[in-house]
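Subgroup meeting minutes
Present: P.N., E.W., G.H.
Scribe: E.W.

1. P.N. recapped why we're keeping a running log of single-chain structure predictions: easier to compare across weeks, and new members can see raw inputs and outputs side by side.
2. G.H. added today's entry (374 aa).
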Amino acid sequence: MTALIASSAVRTCLGGSEATLTRLVRGESQISALHHLRTPTMNVDRAYRIREQGPERSWRASGWLGECVKEALAGARVDPRRERVAAIVGTGLGEMREVERAAVEGRALQPERLHFAEAVREAAPGLEEVITLSNACSASGHALALAQDLVELGDADAVVAAGADSMTTSMLAMIGRVSPASPDRVRPFDVDRQGTLLGDGAAAVVVLPEGGSERPLARLLATGLSCDAHHVTAPHLDGLRRALAGAYERAGRRPADVELVIAHGTGTVLNDPMEAALLAESCGDTGNGPLVTALKGAVGHTSGAAALVNVHAAIGCLRDGVVPPVVGLENPVAEADGLRLVIQRAVRARVRTVQVNAFGFGGVNAVSLLEAAG
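Output recorded in log:
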């Protein structure tokens, strides 16, 4: 079975939903210096931050998430007060930044707001259920898979699949201390990559059952999931293979059916060669396979929102027939030889089917397949 994606909304360092798509195609990046979270020993001084006026506001991730949920529901013409609507939110860190701020400022914390249920219900009164998943960097991919299950089983008339994360001092410190040098930017699949950098972000899509929308943005064919627990941070090829195989088996498709892959592409020493090897193995390394792009050089690693930020870009490619370039990529790694990486500038292409990769810490992986609805 399949489901429909009726609407999609994002907030990234590049802006809102349409601004993000436009600036991705232009090959722009919004990396900037860290100020409010920077310390001399952190070994990270740059990030892809959503810029806002004035001092740092409270509950930043919840704010972006609420905006995306409202926009997505309006775009899908779904009213939770009249229909059975659930929401599933994927995150890596939740509102951990608020825990840090409360500890430093010596103020009380509202623990019930850490898991996003209250923020989503404020944005969408009438929602029956809000579930928050903490599945690392593939969290919103898992939310998308569960959303499809719910509408296919008839347990909901519509499901909001979402993701949100804002950067925290603790996560910045972790990525800084495991890297010998502070990365100047994210360079997916580049031989000179130095590691990943965080990006603020949120995303939401509305998933409906087949026939539930007159003008859907895309058909959601399937998502394959795996959790290999091979290592705390290092990926494992067998785990990636299982997620990939699960997606194609559930969708009844073959890798040869795909015209575009939006890769996870973290710009790290281990992840990029392994993902490139996976793509070469599954899609072919003769130069005749799908186009391959990645977004983190433009928007940073948006953690739990990353999968659905990629889905939003995939929908843009299906709609407009333009594939954005991999920002920061100049010299591809050897494992990517034969892959059709989109380098330097966007390319026009007839895209009907897209594969979206999301791979997380602990081997928590999600691979989604989307198809043009018309």
